[in-house]
Design a protein that fits this description.
By secondary structure, this protein is an alpha/beta fold. It folds into 2 domains: about 200 residues, Spore Coat Polysaccharide Biosynthesis Protein SpsA, Chain A, CATH 3.90.550.10; about 25 residues. The chain is built from 9 helices and 13 strands. The strands form 3 sheets. The chain has a 9-stranded mixed beta sheet, with helices on both faces. A two-stranded antiparallel sheet has the order 5-11. It has a two-stranded antiparallel ribbon with strand order 12-13. A hairpin with a 2-residue loop joins strand 12 and strand 13. The longest helix is centred in the last third of the chain and has 33 residues.
């Protein structure tokens, strides 16, 4: 019954859209198989964006043509579909746990009825789940000024709102940071308090993460041998970045942009001072010579 509501109610139809390009086609089979294993009862039509290549099993191909930029590609993909809401995600996220479709649909239906701009279905905000509660407490509002109000990771978007905030010059990381500012102040952006999707990130800076490599080996998911796997050193550096991001979650959501800006300004000042001291040191050495 919930599925019929989402799929058939006029003005509330949803599709799933995986943003990708042919350069990442080697990860599509593994992604497709994790979807089949952990979300076999997905009630939405599923599309995968490519340049020219055919989408893997379980997905309809959206061949958008030449690769321009992540955002420009997404704009073309969104213009090729007519669904009111889009469950947006990216190609290199491999599911590791079964999706509770009934629970997901309950959250989705509430968000549709409230006409929210976006509902993030992956959460890291357990610490702040009592702040800004929305509706029955199944989600919290991300305040204006909060960073990453816009995201491409398992997020239900009002398609018109998403098109409105996309800048065709931006890559995915720029979109998530800059589009947050372009969302209207009166646009409700929510993050679920329940993690609807559990996954590993398969590719970072063009290389397969070690966790994704182990997962594919254990579950016999196909993985191209042509793409390099992260070294232990690179994996440690990536782990440090994740740890730093997790630490940042202790800052209240509405204060994160100000805190991040202050840290960036301090880091810039430190680099400037270090550079000046280096120049002075070199000049002193030259004078002594």
């Amino acid at each position: 019954m919930q599925t019929d509501y989402v799929a058939n109610r006029k003005g509330a139809n949803i599709c799933m859209l995986i943003s990708s390009c042919d350069a990442y086609s080697d990860i599509w089979p593994a992604m497709s198989q994790t979807m089949a294993a952990h979300w076999p009862d997905c009630p939405f039509p599923r599309f995968l964006m490519s340049n020219y290549d055919k989408a893997p099993a379980g997905f309809t191909t959206l061949a958008i043509g030449p690769d321009i930029s992540w955002s420009a590609n997404l704009i073309r993909g969104l213009e090729m579909i007519d669904h009111d809401y889009v469950l947006l995600s990216v190609d290199d996220l491999l599911l590791t746990r079964k999706v509770d479709t009934h629970r997901l649909l309950e959250s989705v239906c509430r968000a549709q009825r409230a006409k929210v701009a976006a509902l993030q279905l992956v959460t890291y905000e357990n610490l702040w789940r009592r702040m800004g509660k929305w509706d029955d407490g199944s989600a919290i509002r991300i305040p204006v000024g909060g960073i990453y109000r816009a995201t491409a990771v398992f997020t239900l978007w009002d398609r018109r709102q998403l098109l409105k905030v996309l800048n065709p010059l931006e890559n995915a990381w720029q979109f998530e940071y800059c589009a947050s500012d372009r969302l209207d102040a009166d646009s409700d952006v929510l993050v679920a308090v329940h993690n609807h999707f559990t996954f590993v990130n398969a590719i970072v800076k063009g290389k397969v993460t070690r966790s994704a490599y182990r997962l594919c080996e254990q579950k016999h998911y196909p993985l191209s041998a042509s793409r390099p796997v992260m070294t232990a050193k690179e994996s440690c550096a990536y782990g440090f970045l994740l740890l730093r991001a997790s630490t940042f979650r202790f800052v209240p959501p509405g204060c994160r942009r100000a805190v991040k800006s202050a840290i960036q300004r301090a880091a810039f000042t430190v680099r400037e001072l270090a550079g000046r001291r280096g120049i002075q040191s070199n000049n002193s050495g030259a004078n002594r010579a």
